[in-house]
């Protein structure tokens, strides 16, 4: 079992902290054998060409990432590093794009510096796998630029590589053959109802399962869900990004969504694993809050 391992923006107990260490220990008790850790780069606007990723105000320092990786390794878990570009809302990584060839060149130059830094860090701290990008769907049509960048990453980091696509993007990425496994953040809108049944969700998954199976067969690579989780709220298995913070708590909707995944997807031979979303400072999220995707009792 794997977890995408993050922390709340206002949390003082981030990567490498005592809170983080306790959370990792709890994950290990649950049987987790892989985690992902996420350093961020920042854009004020999706059309900006320069990524901010070091210096004042950046909380995921190289030292804190190293400590988190060391703590996980000491517990017998393996670590994937998954750098992520954060864009000021309401934009998101899929909004990132340029309108001129020169701006694209500047953006890829900046992103290359960003990802090569973390490739070097991943090598130096013994990270076990590296995700080269996350949901940058307007950029992944630039296959030649990504191919060059992946070659540069491989010269630095010798472990397995993937890319975390979104559900619409996964079938259009043009460089899966250059990576070791296919990655998708599995937030598929499955059923537009408050509390869909497990059978309804399994039926919805069956459509996506066939497409992902074909993709896996085409490239001869497993598909890994590089992030997935369901909130304990109404419409948990629909468009999670539209669920308001004050949505009514719905434990059954969350439970049905998790059970459907394990029925419909987990047994499939093409499924290489899933990183369930986990907030390291879970003490900061009350048990009644629907904002977390932690499974409830």
How would you describe this protein?
33% of the residues lie in helices and 17% in strands. It has 297 residues and is of the alpha/beta class. It has a single domain, classed as TIM Barrel. Helix 3 runs parallel beside helix 4 and helix 5 packs parallel to helix 6. The longest helix is centred in the middle third of the chain and has 24 residues, at 101-124. The model is unreliable at 280-297 (pLDDT under 50).
CATH class: Alpha Beta
Using the CA coordinates, give the radius of gyration. Answer: 18 Å
Q: What is the third-level CATH name, the topology?
A: TIM Barrel
The computed structural class is: alpha/beta
Q: Look at the structure and name the CATH superfamily.
A: Glycosidases
Report, as a whole number of angstroms, the end-to-end distance: 18 Å
Strand line-up across the major sheet: 1-2-4-6-7-8-9-10
List the helices and strands and how they pair.
Layout (H helix, E strand, L loop, with lengths): L1 E5 L11 H12 L4 E4 L2 E4 L18 H13 L3 E4 L2 E4 L13 H24 L4 E6 L8 H14 L4 E5 L16 E4 L12 H22 L3 E6 L22 H14 L6 E9 L18
Parallel strand pairs: 1-2, 1-10, 2-4, 3-5, 4-6, 6-7, 7-8, 8-9, 9-10
